[in-house]
Amino acid sequence: MYRNPAGIRRRYEQLIRFPEGLLVTGDAGCAFNPRYGQGMTVAALEALELLKTDLRPLPFFKRIAKVVDGPWQITVDDDVRLHQATNAVNPKQRLLNAYLERFHTAAARDPELALRFQRVANLYASPSSLVTPGSLARVLRNGAPPAPVPAAESVPGGGSERSAG
User: Fold this and answer.
1) Burial call 14-24: b when 16+ CB within 10 Å, e when fewer
2) pLDDT band at 163 (very low <50, low <70, confident <90, very high)
3) How far is CA 23 from the centre of its chain?
4) Across all residues in the chain, what is the average pLDDT?
5) Domain assignments of the chain as residue spans, ordered by start
6) Which helix (H) or strand (E) segment is 44 a member of?
7) Which of 26, 59, 139, 156 has its CA at a distance of 20 to 30 angstroms from the CA of residue 106?
8) What is the tens place of the pLDDT at every residue in 132-143?
């Protein structure tokens, strides 16, 4: 079990001022739900921002917010979808969730869509890459849910299956 199975995001970029000479990165700024496995990658991307010449706190925090925004939105949307928090879902999220359901169905049949999703999940690409015109066309072509198969037809020979023992 994880100590904190939820995500926590602190919005340092919204502060008016912050002490000079101090910066916040990693879990101190945004701790991801460990189930998504994105925390270390985001922390590494944040560390790259430390190589830039402008290390004043507020500009740094604004750059970090851009690093965190995509992965954070993925985890929040997925948490809402998984926990079926319908009161927290606005119409835009409902539409996006419906699209992603079709996207996942299509990705099971379309290796290009599966690759696009993996690139987003592994933070190589922006979540917006899942809704490009090319992705939309592929989802529409391949995203219909499979037709249900009656139980009697799902086992070769049409009979039932029992385990020995």
Assistant:
1) eeeebeeeebb
2) very low
3) 26
4) 80
5) 1-68, 90-147
6) helix 39-49
7) 156
8) 999 889 988 887
